[in-house]
Design goal:
The protein is α/β, with parallel strands linked by helices. It has 21 helices and 22 strands. It has an 8-stranded mixed beta sheet. Strands 16-15-22-21-20-19 form a 6-stranded mixed beta sheet. The longest helix has 18 residues.
């Protein structure tokens, strides 16, 4: 009790009765898994938890968009025994919504002493602190993340172990060893497997003391392992943090209303600073800490949250399922915008956003500068070169082979469908010379130009009528390689196509014509950006991409065929991934050795032969000049 007595004497620390009662209930409450058929019980001192999925939506007024990753397909809804004392004015203060991404981030923070958690405004970054505290006290809840880790491990091992897929890979590697290529391939696979297990093998860090501090001047102390079960609350100066924390402590730093720098000098504790994207607040700390980017929730997760709000929150938060869907399209997948804001607040947001859009699309040069900028993408202050949070959002390229799961890299996308359409409309009016130059610059850039796929789509459309003569390369599945069958270095093929018409509608297979490129304006169209019919009646799909892997669920493929009113049994599909030349090694080096998980989510559950046999995959490579054809000597 010496520390407690010292804090009470020096800083006039007091027992916070509300948080003490809340923590006592969290410590002792039985955890009950509720079936989604069951309702929530009130006043019974339980931690109630439901894992909710698409099937649990009570109202399905509009279809649920296809998810990009299994992490987007569920939401853990936890009803606590008591409301969080400082959150009583929020719509659902007794509930926590935990996404798989947040479990993964908890593991990541155990690997790094000093961390910054950032992301778009209004996606529950601050609420992550309460989830962190809950998971520290009730560590058994982390078991809910184990199935996701096991699935990722299974997807990686798919094709690497015994069986048809594994034998195919073994033959490929044997062949390459004879060609003195093994030195590059096998060590790479070993490193990937080692990194793959890093998340599972590293135990999360559980502190003895959690300090939730507001700008380093007001703190709540949660003691997980003595000397008291009480939660202490007091005000202090930033320098005081080092006097009551140590290496077994974690400081959860929350910005206050007044901008203040993060204090870290002489602090041995772990620090997780939750910051809004305002670089002035954490510029110095950022030089010493690891930045992590929280992705936005999926539309499904937002609709599940909205369902809870409709049953527990005040009427002003009772947005219908369709209204939530429409808000995601118009404003982006932000919890605050979609579930909490009034129409008046949304209108103010739209006015500011339109002003920003008009500034960016005022010229080709201003748009190019905004799309290329990475440093200032999240700055909301005027005069910055990048897009603000109104136009762009961070996304996670989740990667089990990466030590930090892919959360430490600042990938981003356009914030919503409405903004994307505004940008595409402007690019559609740009000259071919301008589009080519943007692609040339992107191809030469030291850093990834993450929105280059928009220009790739446009260059294909621009050349559609004059004719394209590029190169392509078949991406064969491991299961298609038999015995010593392996692609040679001469397997690049010529890709030639020309159209009379570019049709922006969605046209069924039976109504398609050979000389028409179908390029739907509806960007919710599944699987591909554009498609056409070749002379052999095969469907050809084009997808402009910056990604190394392209796994989609079988449902996505099914929806593509449903839109075209056909099926894989009747119609073969050749799917081309249109890439920047700078990324060719990602595809060419691993040619002929692709596992099912490269193209299908959930491959470990098996993929029907109709998909494997009737869908073929290719890399489509334009020249680095981005002309319509390669030079004659290429």
């Amino acid at each position: 009790m010496e520390l407690v007595d010292r804090l009470k004497k020096k800083y006039e620390a007091e027992v916070h009765r509300g948080f003490t009662a809340w923590i006592q209930s969290v410590r002792t409450a039985p955890i009950v898994n509720r079936d989604n058929e069951q309702g929530w019980q009130d006043g019974d001192g339980l931690i109630q938890i439901k894992r909710m999925k698409k099937e649990d939506l009570q109202h399905k007024e509009v279809p649920v968009p296809e998810s990009e990753h299994p992490y987007d397909e569920c939401l853990d809804v936890i009803k606590l025994p008591m409301e969080i004392p400082t959150e009583k004015r929020n719509p659902a203060p007794q509930f926590l919504f935990i996404r798989p991404d947040e479990y993964a981030l908890f593991y990541c923070f155990g690997k790094q002493d000093w961390c910054i958690l950032t992301g778009n405004p209004g996606i529950s970054k601050s609420w992550f602190q309460w989830k962190f505290i809950l998971l520290c006290y009730r560590q058994e809840l982390l078991d809910r993340f184990v199935p996701f880790m096991e699935e990722e491990d299974d997807d990686y091992k798919e094709g690497q172990e015994d069986g048809n897929e594994g034998k195919g890979t073994e033959q490929v590697l044997k062949k390459r060893k004879m060609e003195s290529d093994t030195e590059e391939i096998v060590p790479s696979q070993r490193r990937q497997k080692a990194n793959q297990n890093a998340l599972q093998q590293s135990k999360p860090f559980f502190p003895n003391l959690v300090v939730r501090t507001i700008s380093g001047t007001e703190s709540y102390l949660f003691f997980l392992n003595g000397p008291t079960n009480d939660v202490l609350h007091f005000e202090h100066g930033p320098n005081a943090l080092k006097r009551f924390t140590d290496a077994e402590s974690t400081i959860l730093w929350e910005p206050g209303e007044v901008a203040a720098a993060i204090h870290y000098q002489d602090i041995d504790a772990h620090i997780i600073a939750t910051v809004s994207p305002n670089i002035e607040r954490f510029h110095e700390f950022r030089k010493r800490a690891k930045m992590f980017y929280m992705p936005c929730p999926s539309e499904l997760q937002l609709r599940l949250m909205g369902q809870i709000y409709r049953s527990t929150a005040e009427e002003q938060y009772h947005h219908s399922d369709k209204e939530i869907h429409d808000r995601v399209i118009e404003f982006g997948p932000f919890i605050r915008n979609v579930l909490c804001w009034s129409k008046y607040e949304l209108n103010l947001f739209k006015v500011d956003r339109m002003t920003e859009i008009e500034d960016i699309v005022s010229s080709d040069q201003s748009l190019a500068k905004a799309l290329r900028s990475q440093v200032n993408i999240m700055e909301s202050s005027r005069g910055q070169s990048g897009m603000s949070h109104r136009l762009a959002r961070y996304v996670a390229h989740r990667d089990a082979t990466d030590p930090f799961g892919g959360y430490a890299e600042p990938y981003y996308q356009i914030s919503c469908e409405l903004v994307r359409n505004e940008i595409i409309t402007h690019i559609a009016q740009s000259s071919i010379q301008f589009v080519k130059q943007q692609l040339i610059d992107a191809n030469r850039a030291e850093k990834t130009f993450q929105l280059a796929h928009i220009y790739l789509e446009r260059i294909f459309e621009l050349y559609a009528k004059t004719g394209i003569q590029w190169k392509c390369f078949p991406m064969r599945l491991q299961s298609s390689l038999i015995n010593d069958d392996c692609l040679s270095t001469d397997d690049w093929q010529q890709y030639s196509v020309q159209f009379k018409v570019v049709d922006k509608s969605i046209t069924a297979y039976d109504d398609m014509k050979h000389d028409v490129l179908y390029y739907p304006t509806d960007k919710s169209f599944p699987l591909v950006d554009m498609y056409y019919l070749d002379v052999e009646q095969n469907l050809i799909g084009i997808q402009a991409t910056m990604d190394e892997k392209h796994p989609k669920s079988v449902t996505t493929y099914e929806k593509f065929y449903e839109k075209l009113k056909t099926s894989p049994e009747c119609t073969k599909l050749h799917l081309y991934y249109l890439i920047l030349p700078r990324y060719v090694d990602r595809y060419y080096r691993e040619k002929g050795a692709y596992p099912l998980s490269q193209f299908w989510l959930g491959a470990k559950n098996g993929i029907d032969s109709k998909w494997k046999e009737n869908i073929n995959f290719y890399t489509l490579l334009p020249p680095d000049t981005f002309e319509a054809s390669y030079p004659n000597d290429a």
